[in-house]
Amino acid sequence: MGLSTHVLDTMHGCPAAGMAVSLFSTRGDEATLLQRLVLNHDGRTDAPLFDNASLRKGTYRLTFDVAAYFKARGVVLPEPNFLDRVSLDFGIAHADQHYHVPLLVSPWSYSTYRGS
């Protein structure tokens, strides 16, 4: 149980190691930063964003620093970038379940879903 994320770089066909991610709690238009982290070699966090005991019902935002990641990989991006940061707003309705929020991303597109 808890909350986790995973990012796959669909341009290079690999995990997005080194991508910066921020987690916020949200209430309407207000967002409170909970943590900032960098994804490991597998494109994941080293520990769950929330473990079983700390996950709470509510609304959250994950923000992924996509442009900085691709620039660090040597990808030449137009200015301004098509995607700079990708923010995903989502809700936790059942704190007793696991929520996995994966991101599949390139410099020009992204998709997500509730994973397991």
TrEMBL record:
Its EC number is 3.5.2.17. One of its GO terms (molecular function) is hydroxyisourate hydrolase activity. Substrate binds at residues 6, 44, 113. Keywords: Hydrolase, Purine metabolism. It comes from the Bacteria. It catalyses: 5-hydroxyisourate + H2O = 5-hydroxy-2-oxo-4-ureido-2,5-dihydro-1H-imidazole-5-carboxylate + H(+). InterPro entries: Hydroxyisourate_hydrolase, Thyroxine_BS, Transthyretin/HIU_hydrolase, Transthyretin/HIU_hydrolase_d, Transthyretin/HIU_hydrolase_sf, Transthyretin_CS. Residues 3-115 form the Transthyretin/hydroxyisourate hydrolase domain. One of its GO terms (biological process) is purine nucleobase metabolic process. PANTHER family: 5-HYDROXYISOURATE HYDROLASE, URICASE AND TRANSTHYRETIN-RELATED. Belongs to the transthyretin family. 5-hydroxyisourate hydrolase subfamily. NCBIfam families: hdxy_isourate. Homotetramer. Catalyzes the hydrolysis of 5-hydroxyisourate (HIU) to 2-oxo-4-hydroxy-4-carboxy-5-ureidoimidazoline (OHCU). This is 5-hydroxyisourate hydrolase. The lineage of its organism: Bacteria, Pseudomonadati, Pseudomonadota, Betaproteobacteria, Burkholderiales.
